[in-house]
Amino acid sequence: MKPKHVIAAIATVILLAGAAIWSWRSAASAAPERKLDSPEACLVAMTRASQSGDVQAYLDCFTGNLRQELDKELRDQGGVQALGERLRTSVARLKGTASYEENPATSDGAQLILERIYPQHNERWRVALRRDGQAWRVTSMAMIGSAVPPVEYGTPVFAIDAPVNEQQPPPNVDKRR
Amino acid sequence: MNRNGRWLLGVLAAGVALSIWGFERLATAQRDDATKAAKGEAAGTAKQPAKKAGPAKKAAAGQANKPGTKKAAKPVDDHPVADDPNKAPVKPTGPWLSSGDSYDDFCSVAEKADGTLYAAYLAYYDGHDQIRVHKRLGTGAAKDATKNGSEKNDADQIVRWSTRTHMPLVEAVPDIWMPQLAVDANDLLWVIWSEQVGRTEKKSGNWDLYARALEDDGKRWGPIIRLTTDPKPDINHHVCVDSKGVIHVVWQGHPDNNGDVMLCRYDGKQWSKPLTVTSGSGADWYPQIAVDREGTEWIVFDSYRNGDYDIFLTSVRGNKPGDVIPIATSKYYEAHPTIACSADGKVWLAWEQGGWLWGKDQGHWLRAYSKDIGTALGTVRNVKVAVYDGGSLKAAPAPPVPEEELPATAANPKAKRQAGGTAMATLAAGADGRVWLGYRLHKRGQTAQKGRFKTYWTQNVTHMTADGWAKPTEMQLSAGRISVFSRLLPCKQDGSLHVAYSGDMRTPADYHQPIQDRAFATTLPQPDARVGVPALSSYEAPEPPDAASEFDVAGEVADLKAIRGDRRTIDGVEHRIVRGDLHRHTELSWDVGPGNDGSYLDFYRYMIDVAAMDFGSLTDHQGGGQYAYHWWLTQKSADMYYLPPRFVPLYGYERSVKFPDGHRNVFHAYRGVPIFAFQLKLTQQGTFPGVASGDVVENDTKLLYEFLRKTGGLAISHTTATDTMGTDWRDNDPEVEPVVEIYQGARNSSEVVGGPRVHPIDKEPADKAPGGYQEAGMVWNALGKGYRLGTTSSSDHGSTHISYSLVYTPKNDRQEIIDSIRKRQTYGATDNLIVAFEADGHFMGQEYTTNKPPALKLKVHGTAKIDRIDLIRNAQYIYASSPGKRDVEVTYTDMEPKTGTNYYYFRLVQEGGEVAWASPIWVNFEGQ
Fold this sequence. Notes:
The complex is a heterodimer of chains A (177) and B (928). Chain A has five helices and five strands; from the N terminus they run H-H-H-H-H-E-E-E-E-E. With 177 residues, chain A is an alpha+beta fold. Chain A has a four-stranded antiparallel β-sheet with strand order 1-2-3-4. In chain A, strand 3 and strand 4 form a beta hairpin. Chain A is extended and about 75 Å long. Chain B has 928 residues and is mainly beta. In chain B, the strands form ten sheets. In chain B, strands 33, 34, 35, 36, 43, 44, 47, 49, 50, 52, 53 and 54 form a twelve-stranded mixed β-sheet that branches.
């Protein structure tokens, strides 16, 4: 084998390995959206799809009448691009979401509370899901209230008044020397 | 040589002679000072010479000071005893056995039919244990001392012992536990010991009992006979010989990983197979045996079978164990029993009674809210004595405590808590009917800071008279630890008593500092007082203390069952939670040692039974003050109580470099790694520090990290936000320092200003914080610097049962635990909560990269309703809720992670104030 053939073979192996690693990492990072393997995973996927404006991934999180309504909205209100934009806009001020079971899930049904976290308040939604084959999908969503959280989003560390003892040495004083 | 030359030579010779004489005088004076300091201070030597003495008393005179010699600081005669008919105090005979080349412990004696006395002890010598045996050669004149090297006493009589012989053991480099002597029906001397066999560099071996006789008139050792074969530790044995010369051995076996009482005998022909005397789920500890005149074997032991330590008695006739009889079953600590059968057929029992709910909840934050329901492991305890006779239990007087050790003065109301206790009782009954009692006495040394006393323990012996216990004799040079197992052997020839014990030569001026553990065997002469027993009344259980607390045993059992049943798959491997304490001190720590923290052996009681830990470590300062024998005991006991999967001890110590470098606990999965010494500057005066130092070189911590990388160890910083023990987070190495003790039961949390159980600096000044206060050491600052630190929680001095290090690990194994901590698969908690935190399939402690909004999932099982959940990202609260349920599962999707590295963790607070801190997850966010 000539040297140029050796170099070409090595380069091919490196390229193939790189492609495999890229493919594996992409698959790993994309996996949670595709799986919908729990009610919570479905809500995470829904939130992520909203933020990225991924209409297909978003719609994939729903089933039943709600899914039909969303499909109709998709047809009636400007198609994929417009819905994608509306999804992005709807979560633009959203800081995060928190979901937890309202009641223990059964094998084919679950009811979760979804908190949508905003800078000064949290919205609370009741979300019903059902198992649809291997995936969990949303069947209904309804906002049930709004509340001020115990600590506002983004409250920083050391957010208390000045210490009683003003003589406290500064943090980095080395008493030893 | 001319005249001038000869004159000059003469002057020079005279000068040299004068110098030699002066030097010798100086050396003699120094030796005398040292001897006086050691003997006079520690022994409290009796001063009166023996008069009208028999052989034993003549020997006793060997201990008396010569007339005119300097008086001891505290003569033993000062001990107050009511109506002592014995006007002349007993005086011990006999010198020390130790040669000075070893650390000696567990001394035992046995006497042959002709009165020949043997003594044996464990000697820790050059990295291994030996059993050294001596034969007493009798008494002789002082001038003989120089010939045979025996110790000379201050009088004209000496007790001569043979040079030692080393009894060959199973292993060439062995670990030995509690060697004891006995003489059988054939008048052969036996040594019975526990030895660890099969230990490798990375694995603990097994502890079994062995016996070996000295045969052929002492010329050779017989074969080694293995008495036990169970693959779990057979330890803490006790040996007695009945009137027919049958040797009886009881011990603590662990066939099901908790203590059971076992028994075997040697009838002069063969050793019997082990007989199980007790079994079951309750842990039985430290059995002792005595045989009555009818041949019934009486066995006393303490047990955690009722959820606290109680005393039980049982009997064996033939091979049939009898009923287990409750003796002392209050909720006080009742443990370390001893037994003797007196000539009149009565069964004498003694044990120590300590605090209420021993080892239950204790710590700074609980005291602040009066929720400290338990008592610390080393709090005051006192020996109780009772007589079991025909099915009834009578209370006998407790041994006297010297007035100067009793509580308490108005100026020092804490004095009661610092000394005056008695412990580690040993009973013996002579053929003449006399009952003897040995015990350790907790004494005050010199006053230390803040009016507290330095304290230590000495060995004392007394005997029963018709008027109660006689004036105790404080045994010479017996100052030392509480954990000294002495042996009493009534002399077959007369009414004297052979006493075997050890001490570590510490002095009241430096109560905390052992000098060298040494073994002693001596004989107390027959007392003049007639044998007798005062009128005894029925034994009544002690009254509970005022406002006695109760503890919900069933609730804790259920919580532990839930924790131990939890399984979680991490990286494809099933993990369980193990629950431990990585910061505990004992008597081996020189600061609080002899008082508040209890013995190194009681550490295991606490960990295995009271706190029901899965793993943990002794972390005495520098492994016990950089004192070789303490570190040996620390490591050896970690092998002895290696009971996987029930309990797995790590090898650890605390390395206390003062702020700003900080205190760290150091751990290894295998034995034999040396203590990493303080890297001192040449500025510190005095001895090498045994507790803490601030005078270290600039790169001391970095050198520690290098040492730990090479030895596979871990370090964990503690109380980081104090200005005495804390740090300003100048150093961290994620490989060897992967977690922090975020909360300490003895003091505060170091999480963040305003956090739960953090010193409330907005309400109380910094000087009210135990250990001090500074904010640079808050853990959020370390996380802000980018350190990868998981969380643990542990106890420190005095605190018990309120701080836990919880580790997700594939199995409860030393190396697996170390590896799991290194991966930060940990959380800290003040109670038995189950906390699991993951993000996109990555478990807490891990780091990963994503371009999607991270989905963070928390699962909690509380011991009460969860009052508050906080999610922290990059020094900001991003989510808080109050679920009000015991079981909570919440998934948070973060829509605004910063591009780059984000750390997240959950903190939980229950109704009632219990807290848990999950380890962070680091998310490298590649999105915008």
